[in-house]
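Give me a protein, keeping tokens residue-aligned:
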Amino acid sequence: MVKKLKQMLRFVNKMFIRYEQVLPKVEMTQKERAMYAKQIRDNPLWEEVLSELKQQALITCERSPARDIEGREYLWKYIRAIEQLKSKIQSHVWNDVIEEKKEQQNPTL
């Protein structure tokens, strides 16, 4: 199972790098980013998939042999990556909330 997760993560990393190099950067306003981030965050499938991936990684880690330090380290990084995805999406939402508060306090800016 650890090998499959490693292969899957390597594949995702390769694909992400390729797409990042090929696709042009999309320019979005903070409001647009927040809108899309809210749609992702509020989508029940998003939370279900991330929770399932995290749970699978935790189960795999629990079942791994004590000598597989490298495998558990890899799974820990995988779980951290999932948490970072969640945080990144939430940060776009909060950035918009902060900007709205600033605009309400200083409407002339």
